[in-house]
Write a structure and sequence with these properties.
alpha+beta; 2 domains; 5-stranded antiparallel beta sheet; 17 strands
Length: 280
C-alpha cells in the first residue's frame, strides 16, 4: 500500500486510499475494499457518490439496489481519487464543507489519527500560561477533568464549571497566580480578588469528540467526528464575571450592609443615656 497522510472517515469507519489498487481499504481490515470503479460519477460535479451502509458497520455493500434504501450516500471530492491531499488549508476547507453539507466523510489529519490510535494521546487545554490535559474519562474522577501536565495533583473538575447555563462551554474561575481552580463560596463572596479571572473553554464535544465517542457503548471514537472536528489544542479565553457570581456579590453585600446597620442601631440604642427628671 502506498504511504499517504489521508485517512478517510466514511460513516464511522476509517479507510486508507490505495492508489495502486484504486480502492479505499478499511484500516485494519483491508479485505473490506471500496473500489473507485464502483463509485457513481456525475458529469459537471466535483463529487463521486458512494452508497455506504451505515447500519451494518464495517461492511460495504457496493451498489446493490436492494440495499440502497438502507444506505447512506457519501459525496467524495474527486481529487481524493487521484492523489493524497497535503495542503492543510485545502483539507480544512473540504472537511468544513463536508460537515456543513452532511456529506458523510472527513479527512482525518495526523492529530486525530493519533487520538484514535492505540496510544492514549489526549488533547491539551491552555489556561492563561498553564498547560492541562483533557480527561473526559478518568478512573479517579466521576466526571471530566483538566489535569496539569506539570503537577498531576492540580486538577480542575469540569462538573463545577457551569456557572451560567445560557453560556456555551465550561466557565472556569481561575487563579492566574497559582494556576489553579478558584473555589468561590457564593454564600459569602462580596468581591472577586484581582488574581482571579474567569475563563471559557469548550464543552465535551469541542474539547474531545473522540473521547465522547469512546464513552458510548462499544464506541470506537469515530462516532462524533462527522459533525464535530477534533483539535489537539484548546486555548481558554477570558470572559466577564458570570451572572450568578455577580448576583451573589450583590446579595451578600446588601445583607452585610443591612446587618451592619442593624448592629449600629442596636448599639446606639444601648448607649443612649436615660433621661433624668427633677423631683421636688
Amino acid at each position: 500500500m502506498q504511504s499517504n497522510t489521508n485517512h478517510l472517515l466514511l460513516g464511522e469507519t476509517v479507510f486508507i486510499p490505495d492508489y495502486d489498487k484504486s480502492a479505499f481499504l478499511e484500516k485494519g481490515n483491508p479485505d473490506n475494499a471500496i473500489y473507485f470503479k464502483d463509485l457513481i460519477f456525475k458529469e459537471g460535479t466535483p463529487f463521486a457518490v458512494l452508497n455506504y451502509n451505515s447500519l451494518l458497520r464495517n461492511q460495504y455493500y457496493g451498489l446493490d439496489l436492494e440495499l440502497l434504501k438502507y444506505n447512506k450516500k457519501i459525496l467524495l471530492p474527486k481529487p481524493l481519487l487521484t492523489a493524497p491531499l497535503t495542503d492543510e488549508k485545502q483539507i480544512d476547507d473540504i472537511n468544513k464543507l463536508a460537515r456543513d453539507r452532511n456529506q458523510g466523510f472527513q479527512i482525518l489529519k495526523p492529530a486525530v489519527q493519533e487520538r484514535l490510535g492505540g496510544k492514549e494521546v489526549l488533547p491539551k487545554a491552555y489556561l492563561e500560561d498553564y498547560e492541562f490535559t483533557v480527561h473526559l474519562q478518568h478512573r479517579d474522577y466521576e466526571k471530566g477533568v483538566l489535569i496539569s501536565t506539570s503537577n498531576p495533583k492540580n486538577v480542575i473538575p469540569l462538573k463545577f464549571a457551569n456557572w451560567d447555563r445560557d453560556v456555551s462551554g465550561y466557565q472556569i474561575p481561575f487563579n492566574k497566580i497559582t494556576g489553579t481552580y478558584a473555589h468561590l463560596d457564593l454564600d459569602r463572596i462580596v468581591e472577586v480578588a484581582p488574581n482571579i479571572v474567569f475563563l471559557r473553554i469548550g464543552d465535551d464535544l469541542e474539547l474531545d469528540p473522540v473521547g465522547v465517542g469512546k464513552k458510548l457503548i462499544n464506541g470506537s471514537g469515530t462516532e462524533m467526528l462527522l459533525k464535530f472536528p477534533y483539535q489537539d489544542k484548546h486555548v481558554a479565553t477570558r470572559i466577564p464575571c458570570p451572572r450568578r457570581v455577580k448576583e451573589s456579590i450583590v446579595k451578600n453585600t446588601t445583607q452585610k450592609k443591612s446587618k451592619k446597620e442593624n448592629e449600629s442601631q442596636s448599639s446606639n440604642s444601648t448607649n443612649k443615656r436615660p433621661i433624668k427628671f427633677k423631683t421636688r
